[in-house]
Amino acid sequence: MTAISIRGLVKEYGTKRAVDGLDLDIGTGEVFALLGPNGAGKTTTVEILEGFRTRDSGEVSVLGEDPEKANRVWRNRIGIVLQSSAGLDLLTPREIIASTARTYATPRAVDDVIAAVGLEEKADERIAGLSGGQRRRLDVGLGIVGRPELLFLDEPTTGFDPQARRDFWELIRSLAAEGTTILLTTHYLDEAEQLADRVGVIAGGQLLALDTPANLGGRASEEATVSWAEGGQRQTLRTATPTLEVRRLAERFSGEVPELVVSRPTLEDTYLSLIAPHVIDEGAAHTNASQEVMA
Ligand SMILES: Nc1ncnc2c1ncn2[C@@H]1O[C@H](COP(=O)(O)OP(=O)(O)OP(=O)(O)O)[C@@H](O)[C@H]1O
């Protein structure tokens, strides 16, 4: 079952090709993360899927309909997280969630939405008094109140503190467990790794890579780096068999290997090397932070 199907999608702004022949299928119930540098074409693609922008060519099907021709019934089956609470400072979260709920045939209970986005303590206070992260949670609440089959989340956790991000990830996991299909754009690689079944990397309006977070760009089969301290220096070797190397080291040291670290390329390393040829700011593309796994 396919929730979203895209074939040969093209969108131009004047002479600028923002989306350049994109093909992509997203399955029903899948959590899919669209990654890419600024200007890659993510928002354009997502807004075409939401029916907010027209395309120049290509075929698009979202929940079985062409978004350009879709009606209100279709719109009620999708959830979009917008800056919906902006300009509503005098209302409370409970009031705006309740009034939004009334526009749907089978909405979630207002208290359930408030609890799902962790706004119990702020539910009856004016929106003017909410922090940036709390407003964003309210926006997410408004996006899920209609029990959408498909939820679009555009950079959902920008401005969240670390605990709020983790709470939000739990919310997304519970929505996914209920069978909601989720299309997420994010600049946080850890968010994609935590949430997504698959990730797609786009740059210049084209799909560069499509895989599970663990396998993206052949990451799972990349060599590991083993390093340790010896003779007052840091020793490093790259190997396809890190367990064997660690065992050899353990035998040589007769036990604990000093300051042993085994690391593999992180999703961020792989992502940055995929997009490097497409990014003008070369310096930013050569960061090489490796995830360290203590063996
Ligand atoms: N309304 C518009 N008019 C003209 N050009 C546009 C318009 N919207 C987007 N673009 C251009 O199209 C390209 C893709 O933009 P888009 O917003 O889809 O990228 P993005 O991947 O969402 O970027 P970001 O991560 O910065 O949000 C960019 O070069 C952008 O300048």
UniProtKB/TrEMBL annotation:
Localization per Swiss-Prot or TrEMBL: Cell membrane
Residues spanning the membrane: none
All copies of domain ABC transporter, residue ranges: 4-229
Pfam families in the record: ABC_tran
CDD domains found in the cross-reference section: ABC_DR_subfamily_A (cd03230)
GO biological process: one example: response to antibiotic
Keyword annotations of the record: Antibiotic resistance, ATP-binding, Cell membrane, Membrane, Nucleotide-binding, Translocase, Transport
SUPFAM superfamilies: P-loop containing nucleoside triphosphate hydrolases
SMART domains, per database record: AAA
A GO CC term assigned to this protein in UniProt: plasma membrane
Listed InterPro entries: AAA+_ATPase, ABC_transporter-like_ATP-bd, ABC_transporter-like_CS, ABC_transporter_ATP-binding, P-loop_NTPase
GO molecular function: ATP binding; ATP hydrolysis activity
PANTHER family reported in the protein's UniProt record: ABC TRANSPORTER ATP-BINDING PROTEIN
Designated name of the protein: ABC transporter
The species this protein was found in: Knoellia sinensis KCTC 19936
